[in-house]
Amino acid sequence: ESGKTVDVNARPKGNQTITFEALSDRIYGDAPFQLTATASSGLAVSYSSSDPSVASVSGNELIIHKTGTVEITASQPGNDAYNAATAVVQSLVINPKPITVAAENKTKVYGEENPSLTYVYDGLVNGDTKTATEPAISTTATAASGVGVYPISVSGAADANYSISYA
Questions:
Q1: Are both 104 and 88 inside the same structural domain?
Q2: At 39, is the pLDDT very low, low, confident or very high (cuts 50, 70, 90)?
Q3: Same domain for 130 and 85?
Q4: CA 135 to CA 145: how far, in whole Å?
Q5: CA distances (Å), origin 88, targets 40, 60, 76, 92
Q6: N or C terminus: fewer CB in 10 A for the chain?
Q7: Do residues 45 and 39 lie in contact, with contact meaning Cβ atoms separated by under 8 Å?
Q8: Does pTM surpass 0.70?
Q9: Please, are residues 115 and 108 in contact by the beta-carbon 8 Å criterion?
Q10: Residue 8 pLDDT > 70, yes or no?
Q11: SS3 content of the chain, % helix, strand, coil (to 5)
């Protein structure tokens, strides 16, 4: 039939904004945590990391892999009703975890060679079993040392993911 018409009213897309609060510093070994940005449209926000080797994003969860600084970007691409939101970027600093390296006490019989000197770590995380550079360990005691107590010194450990002290 002719003479019929259809009115099509185009509705303009709405604008939206993202609210993404500053991220507090974290420590290597911290548990994964939820990112909580929101879009004024109510649409889901997605995230990305500037360096996934430092911290990666899976859904809304951020996973720390090593120390460093990354930029986390929150974005929302829009849909049929909303324009894309301007992305919001927050910086995240991941600091080294404090750990302690301690020499283990040893005993020996006068005149015998020193036993093997050993040390233990306190505070390693994420399945780490040692530091990248292992410490040196020494004592002033020798096979000829008289009866007494001698110091065992440990030093020189290094690892970017840890702040190391000695006990």
A1: no
A2: very high
A3: no
A4: 24
A5: 13, 15, 10, 13
A6: N
A7: yes
A8: yes
A9: yes
A10: no
A11: 0, 40, 60
